[in-house]
Amino acid sequence: MSSSSPSLDTLLTWIRTESPTHDRAGVNLMMDLVVAQMQDSPVAVERIPGTEGLGDVLVLRAGPQTAEPGLLVMSHLDTVHPVGTIENDLTLRIEDDRLYGPGIYDMKGGAWFALEAFKEVARKGTAARPMVFLVTPDEEIGSPITRPMIEDLGRRSAYALVTEPARDGGQIVTARKGVGRFDVHVEGRPAHAGSRHKEGRNAVYEAARQILAIEALTDYARGITTTVGMVSGGTAVNTIPQHCRFPVDLRVETVADGEAVTAALLGLKSSNPDFKVSVSGGMNRPPYERTESTAKLFDHAKSLAAEIGFDLVSAPRVGGGSDGNFTAALGIPTLDGLGIDGDGAHTLQEYGLISSIAPRQKLMARLLETLR
């Protein structure tokens, strides 16, 4: 695909349509573009109104009308970049093979060409199984409103294909860490920092002790990481703080480790009875473990890529989660990282490689045609 391709013009329109997760109007404009893209094709479009102030959900159906388990393709159209990024910090531009713009890599590029492949296979009538394409508005915040839908569709599917971006030169994803989110609240006793210091119980001090214990749960050999990236506490520099709060990010490779570390975090207590420590939260995305069935799915994709003319490589386990974690945890063979190649996700240097679009679009089409 060349930089002057008429097809690329429609992708540029996608990138110009900024769609941060909490901008419902922007996300729904993206959903409008998908609906328009499916016009004049044998694709049934179901649009489900979003809840909790988030955008709508699209369920696209095509292929054989049978009761057998189908093929589930998943893309999200929300991004992390605030509105205005494209005008000021990450302008839409093409530099050689690189297409720069907010959300091009994560994951509008992959979603766009996967929809093109889906439509092509639907028109040709060559799908191997019933096809469902789920387009979601909330992946960047953990899929709070769409997880039940993902799991329901996953249970009725033989395979799941996820268009998150390719990794490190086009590598496919066959395993991801599970992700946990926790909130910790430490309550102490307020006091004047000068005249009544001894009477106070410094919540920030106790939070620091708890943070050291939490960070000590990190075990690189087992693939466990705990991170406290923000801390909020106190009201004034001369007041012993009564409250301190901080979130915890947890990443694990196995369900067992997720359960063990979750129990440790939820069981945090202070050794000093004058402090109260409260913890809420849990695993947001279960681990996506590489199974024998997923390995076979990758081998099939690799052979198709070879026929198309490129080498498909499986990336090492990825630390970030995706909606593929949900289907993989159900035992559904799941292939992720099928989106555009590039780099710079969530940064102001985000770009996709134009040359990766055509071959990876062909790969998606061939997967839809051959996965029996």
UniProtKB/TrEMBL annotation:
GO molecular function, one term: metal ion binding
Stretches assigned to the Peptidase M20 dimerisation domain: 174-265
CDD domains: M20_CPDG2 (cd03885)
Active site: residue positions: 78, 139 (proton acceptor)
Keywords, alphabetical: Hydrolase, Metal-binding, Zinc
UniProt keyword annotation of Membrane present: no
Keyword Transmembrane helix found: no
Cofactor(s) annotated in UniProt: Zn(2+)
Entry-linked PROSITE patterns: ARGE_DAPE_CPG2_1
Protein name as it appears in the record: Acetylornithine deacetylase/succinyldiaminopimelate desuccinylase-like deacylase
